[in-house]
Each structure stands twice: as structure tokens, then as C-alpha cells.
Amino acid sequence: MTKPSIVSLFSGAGGMDLGLSQAGFKTIWANDVDHGACHTYRQNFGDHIICKSIRDIPSEDIPNSDIIVGGPPCQGFSVAGKMDLADPRSQLVWEFCRVVIEKRPQYFIMENVAALSTNPKFNILHDALIRTFKENGYTVKFRTLNSQDYGVPQSRERFFILGSLEAPIWFPDPINARIPVREAIRDLQPPVKLTCSAKITLSPTPIMRKSPYAGMLFNGGRPLDPDRPSCTLIASMGGNRTPLIEQNILDDPAAESWIRKLHSEIERLDVSKVVIPGYLRRLTVDECARLQGFPDDFVFTGSFSQQYHQIGNSVTPPLAKHIGRTLMDSIQGAVPKHVESVLDMF
After folding, report:
1. Of residues 38, 51, 74, 231, which has the active-site annotation?
2. Which end of the chain is more exposed for a tag (fewer CB within 10 A), N or C?
């Protein structure tokens, strides 16, 4: 059987393409504007990626395919950004829409931040996107999925839109096997090389939450609880927003957590006099790649800062693989066991 073909837009380093290839698809053409990400993509997938703004690529220059996939830049919608609908990057979802409508693949997958679905500020855009796809003949399903429910050791909510011209479509069921940070990275310990040298300091005005791993105790990235999935990795990692980990409790789960002790005492302390222990450090590139769901043989290129950025920007490959498997079932005419009625698939 010939593998169903994919055109990949806003491909980045290729997390979506990797997961879909593991599900049995083949990417025949890809595109991104980031030169560093394109270099990483070529190292892992080949030379079929075009490093150019999709705004400057007419649809007739893009090959026909069974599926079009992509995650238009989300900074305009992101909670970590300004959540600005007028941000030019927010308008790139329409470039994705333009290519889908003009090329008319049998299926499409669009990924973005959860805020596109959950924040009322973006209701007009969200509704307009869904309406446009439907008016052009697509059956549309949309849902916010969390990568931690699909074998990724990271809590990462993302919004997905699936479209089909004819066949029924559905989302994958969660696998309900959450992987904690320690389990994901323990065989990398101790790290061969630290890849982020940003100084760790306490916030002069800590924001307290019930958990020591929430709020804002530090002037930068949050600490990770080794016994739970990671918090969401962000594209601005590489400096002081790179998450923190206590090496001592990675080495020995019974060791005392300095972060937990700090959290219980910080309201009584002069934070300017607190000494940060040497075993508190920032995650390495290799650890972040593991927490994003990339295999160890995936090659990231460029500076460490660029590699952190590529990882934080990526779709988690295992989640993409699970979505790809349901799409493959649709292509092959299978009906999922969890669907009670064929109508539930539309």
C-alpha cells in the first residue's frame, strides 16, 4: 500500500511530521520560515522543505497531497505572549486555510494553542475558521488535547482542528498512562553537559500558589516536580525561562527537596539572602527533547538557544502519532470501538 501523502505547513523542526510518519504517512513537501528549524528538518527528513514565508508561495507551487497539516505560529494567541488578535502572526491561520481550500486535500490537521478555543477574545476568529472550512465542503471536528494523556511526559494543551471532505473523522482516546519527569529522563543522569547557563535567582516578589511547582518563586523558569509530567515547555527556553530541576532528588527520590522547604518558609525569609544550592539547575536540551516526546536519535542543530526554541515550538510527536493513527483508520474505512454511533464521527 502506498503511504498517504502529506504537505506540511509551518513545519518547524518536524514534530508533527515525525509523529505522522510513525503512523504510516509520508511527507512529500514541507515549509517553514525559520532557517534554523529548516536545517534541523533537513537533517532528519530530507530536502523537501522550502525555507520561505508561506505568504510568498502560491498554491500552484505546492504539490497535491492526501492531507495538509500545520501549526500556524501561535504567539499572537499564546497566554505566554500578549494574546493579541491584531498580531500579524495571528493572521497566519488564514494562510493555512487558504492553502487547504485551494488544494482541497481529503483531510487536514491544524494545531494551535488552547487559547484559540478557550479564550472568548478569540471567539470571532475561531468561529470564522470553522465556518470557512465547513462552507468549503469540509466536515470539521475540533478539540483541545493534552499531550500528557498520550504518552508524553509533559502537560501541554493544544487545540486541534480535523477536517475531512468525505470520510468520517474522530479524535484518539487518551491512553491514561501519565509519565513523570523522573521516569522520562532518569537514564540521562547525570547530564553529560549543561546547555543553559542562565543564572538562577529568586523572584524579589514571589507569587505563591499551593504547590511549590506553580506560582513564581524564581525569576524565570518554573521548577519541575520529578514525580509528575513536566509543565508546558515554551519556545523562549534557552535563557532564564528554561525550567529548573533538583539534581539531588533525581539521583535519590528519598532526598530532601530544597524547593519544597523553600516554599514552606519563603514568606518568613529575606529572599535577597537566600543561597541557591548547586544541585538546582536548568534542564538540558536532551532532557527537553525527551519531555517533548522526541526520540534520542532525532538531531537538533544550531546553537543551544535555537535548539531549545525548536523543541518548545514543536508539536509533540507521540500526540501527532495518535492523531495520525485515527486518520489512518479513517482512510482505511475502520470504525473506532469507542464510537457508539456513526453520527458521532461527524
Report:
1. 74
2. N
Domains of the chain (ranges, CATH numbers): 5-177+314-345 (3.40.50.150), 181-228+244-282 (no CATH)
Read off the pLDDT of residues 232-248 as tens digits, 9 standing for 90 and up. 999 999 999 999 999 99
Whether this prediction's pTM lies above 0.70 is answered by: yes
Beta carbons of 73 and 112 less than 8 angstroms apart: no
Q: d(Cα 10, Cα 54) in Å, to the nearest integer?
A: 8
What mean pLDDT comes out for the span 156-183?
94
Amino acid symbol at 72:
P
Angle, helices 123-135 vs 92-103, to 10°: value is: 10
* 127, amino acid identity: D
Cis? peptide before 318, omega within 30° of 0: no
Q: How far apart, in Å, are the Cα atoms of 330 and each of 21, 170, 237, 324?
A: 16, 8, 37, 10
